[in-house]
C-alpha cells in the first residue's frame, strides 16, 4: 500500500501534473464524489473547482488528466487520430458492444461504418414526412387530452414519447404509439432513469455491470432496482431484433434501407458481429442515446421559451410569418433557415449539455500541451478529456452562461479573439466518435419545436427553477433534484 502510494505521488509519469494530492493517491476520491457526496454525480463540478485552483490541466485521479482549455478540445476530439476510449467504461451503460461503448478504435470504426449511412443528411431528409406525422400526432394529443381538458402536461414525458416513436420507427419499422399513452408515460422514461442510475456504480466498479447481467432477476430486483428497467428494456430489444432477423431470413416484408436494424443485419459486418448479444447492444445504444438527448434538448428549449415573454413573442412572430397556416408545416430545408428558431435550438443544445460526464480518449503516443508558463508532455496511454459542461459554461465564451440567450447565436457570432462562436458548441462532440445521430436529432428537434410552438401557447404549472431545472448532479446527462416530477405546463 505504502509503495503504491509513494509510486502514485512521486514516481508515476503523471506525478508532476497539478491537482489535489488525494485525487492522485486514490480512485476512491472520485468514487466519493460520484456516489456518496450530496446527490452523487458531483465529480464534474469538483473538476471545475480543481481547474479554478490548479489551472487548465489537472490530474483528476491516479491515471487520468482533464484539460479545460477550449483551444485544446479539437486536439482530443479529432478526426485525424485513432484514439481509443478507456476499457473500464465499456460496461457503463450495460451494452459493452455498442459503438458508444467500444474502446478500440479499429473495432469502433468497423461497427460505426455499418450504421453511418442511416444517419447521413440525405437519408434523414427522406424521413421528414414520418417525423412530421409523429409531431402532428403529438399536437393532436395535446389538443384533445390536455388543452381541451385543461390538464397540465409533463413536457419531459411528452418529448420522450415523441422521440421514442420516431426512434423505434426508424430503428425497427415499428409503431408503438407511445404518444397514445394517457399521460405520455412510455416505458423509456423508467428505462432512461434506470440507465442513469446504474451508470456511476458501473463506472466506479466496472465488474458490476457484467455481474448484474449474470444474476437472476429476483436478486437484481433486491440489490439494484434501477437495473430491472434496464433488463426489461434489453429484453424488449431482443424481441425486436428477432423479428428483424426473421424478416431478413424470410426475405419478406422489409426494405434494408428503411430501418437501421435491417440495415445492420444486411451490412458487411463479419458474422461474429451479428450475434444476438452484440445486436442487442447496438439497439440499446441507438435507442438509449437516440431518445435521452433530443428529449432533454426539447424540454430545455420549451421551458426557457415559455418562461421568457420576449423570447416566446420573437419566436412566435418568426413562426407565424413563415407558417401562416399552422396546419401547413414548412419543409425541413426552410425550417433550417429560420434564424431565431435556429438560435433557440443552438442555445437549448448549449444549456442542455446532454452528455455531462467526461468522455476520455487515449492516444498511443505522447501529446504536448502548452500553458502560458510551460509545456507538458502527456504520456502515451493516458486517458485525457475535456467535458462539454465546462466548455458550455465557459464565462469568457458564453457570458452569463446559465441564462438562455438565443441572441448570442444570431448574425455569425464571434468570440473576443474573432473566432466563430460555433467552434465552441460541442453538444454533439467532435472527431471520430462524435454523435452519429446528429442529423436525425436536429430534424426531430426542429420539426417538433416549430410544430408545437406554432400551434400552442404554454404556461408553466407548478414548476420551479430550483427544483425542476437547476442542474445539481451529473447523472451522465445533467440532472435535477431527485424530488422533481418534471417540468409541467398548461396548454393554451
Ligand atoms: C440532442 C441530441 C443529441 C446529442 C446532444 C448527442 C450527443 C452525443 C455526444 C456528445 C456523443 C459523443 C459521445 C462520446 O464522445 O463519448 C454522442 C454519441 C452517439 N450518439 Fe448522440 N446525441 C444526440 C442524439 C442522438 C441520436 C438521435 C442518436 C441516434 C438515434 C444518437 C446516437 C449516438 C450514438 C450511437 C453515439 C456513439 C457514437 C460513436 O461512439 O461513434 N445520438 N452523442
Automatic annotation (TrEMBL):
The keyword Translocase does not apply. It comes from the Eukaryota. Its cofactor is heme. SUPFAM superfamilies: Cytochrome P450. Heme binds at residue 435. GO terms for molecular function: heme binding; iron ion binding; monooxygenase activity; oxidoreductase activity, acting on paired donors, with incorporation or reduction of molecular oxygen. Keywords: Heme, Iron, Metal-binding, Monooxygenase, Oxidoreductase. Pfam families: p450. The keyword Oxidoreductase applies. CDD domains: CYP58-like. Coiled coil: none annotated. InterPro entries: Cyt_P450, Cyt_P450_CS, Cyt_P450_E_grp-I, Cyt_P450_sf, Cytochrome_P450_monoxygenase. PANTHER family: CYTOCHROME P450, N-ACETYLTRYPTOPHAN 6-HYDROXYLASE IVOC-RELATED. Belongs to the cytochrome P450 family. This is Cytochrome protein.
Amino acid at each position: 500500500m505504502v509503495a503504491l502510494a509513494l509510486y502514485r505521488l512521486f514516481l508515476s509519469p503523471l506525478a508532476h501534473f497539478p491537482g489535489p494530492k488525494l485525487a492522485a493517491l486514490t480512485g476512491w476520491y472520485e468514487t466519493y464524489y460520484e456516489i456518496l457526496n450530496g446527490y452523487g454525480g458531483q465529480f464534474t463540478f469538483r473538476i471545475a473547482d480543481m481547474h479554478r485552483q490548479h489551472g487548465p490541466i489537472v490530474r483528476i485521479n491516479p491515471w487520468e488528466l482533464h484539460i479545460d482549455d477550449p483551444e485544446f478540445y479539437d486536439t482530443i476530439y479529432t478526426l485525424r487520430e485513432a484514439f481509443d476510449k478507456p476499457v473500464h467504461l465499456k460496461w457503463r451503460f450495460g451494452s459493452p458492444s455498442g459503438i458508444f461503448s467500444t474502446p478500440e478504435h479499429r473495432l469502433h470504426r468497423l461497427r460505426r461504418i455499418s450504421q453511418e449511412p442511416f444517419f447521413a443528411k440525405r437519408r434523414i431528409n427522406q424521413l421528414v414526412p414520418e417525423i412530421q406525422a409523429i409531431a402532428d400526432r403529438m399536437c393532436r394529443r395535446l389538443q384533445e387530452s390536455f388543452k381541451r381538458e385543461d390538464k397540465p402536461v409533463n413536457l419531459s414525458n411528452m418529448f420522450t414519447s415523441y422521440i421514442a416513436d420516431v426512434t423505434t420507427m426508424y430503428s425497427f419499422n415499428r409503431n408503438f404509439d407511445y404518444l397514445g399513452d394517457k399521460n405520455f408515460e412510455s416505458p423509456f422514461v423508467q428505462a432512461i432513469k434506470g440507465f442513469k442510475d446504474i451508470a456511476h456504480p458501473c463506472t466506479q466498479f466496472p465488474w458490476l455491470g457484467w455481474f448484474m447481467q449474470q444474476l437472476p432477476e429476483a436478486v437484481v430486483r433486491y440489490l439494484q432496482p434501477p437495473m430491472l428497467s434496464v433488463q426489461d428494456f434489453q429484453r424488449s430489444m431482443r424481441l425486436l431484433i428477432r423479428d428483424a432477423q426473421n424478416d431478413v431470413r424470410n426475405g419478406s416484408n422489409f426494405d434494408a434501407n428503411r430501418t437501421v436494424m435491417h440495415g445492420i443485419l444486411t451490412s458487411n459486418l463479419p458474422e461474429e458481429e451479428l450475434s444476438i448479444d452484440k445486436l442487442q447492444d447496438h439497439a440499446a445504444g441507438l435507442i438509449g442515446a437516440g431518445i435521452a438527448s433530443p428529449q432533454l434538448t426539447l424540454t430545455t428549449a420549451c421551458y426557457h421559451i415559455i418562461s421568457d415573454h420576449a423570447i416566446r413573442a420573437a419566436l412566435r412572430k418568426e413562426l407565424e410569418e413563415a407558417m401562416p397556416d399552422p396546419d401547413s408545416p414548412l419543409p425541413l430545408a426552410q425550417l433550417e433557415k429560420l434564424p431565431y428558431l435556429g438560435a433557440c435550438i443552438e442555445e437549448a443544445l448549449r444549456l442542455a449539455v446532454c452528455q455531462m460526464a467526461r468522455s476520455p480518449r487515449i492516444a498511443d503516443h505522447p501529446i504536448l500541451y502548452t500553458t502560458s508558463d510551460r509545456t507538458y508532455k502527456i504520456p502515451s496511454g493516458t486517458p485525457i478529456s475535456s467535458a462539454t459542461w465546462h466548455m458550455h459554461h465557459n464565462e469568457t465564451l458564453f457570458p452569463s452562461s446559465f441564462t438562455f440567450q438565443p441572441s448570442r447565436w444570431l448574425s455569425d457570432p464571434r468570440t473576443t479573439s474573432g473566432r466563430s462562436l460555433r467552434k465552441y458548441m460541442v453538444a454533439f462532440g467532435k472527431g471520430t466518435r462524435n454523435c452519429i445521430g446528429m442529423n436525425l436529432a436536429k430534424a426531430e428537434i426542429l420539426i417538433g419545436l416549430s410544430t408545437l410552438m406554432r400551434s400552442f401557447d404554454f404556461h408553466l404549472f407548478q414548476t420551479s427553477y430550483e427544483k425542476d431545472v437547476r442542474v445539481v448532479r451529473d447523472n451522465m446527462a445533467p440532472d435535477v433534484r431527485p424530488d422533481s416530477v418534471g417540468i409541467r405546463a398548461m396548454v393554451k
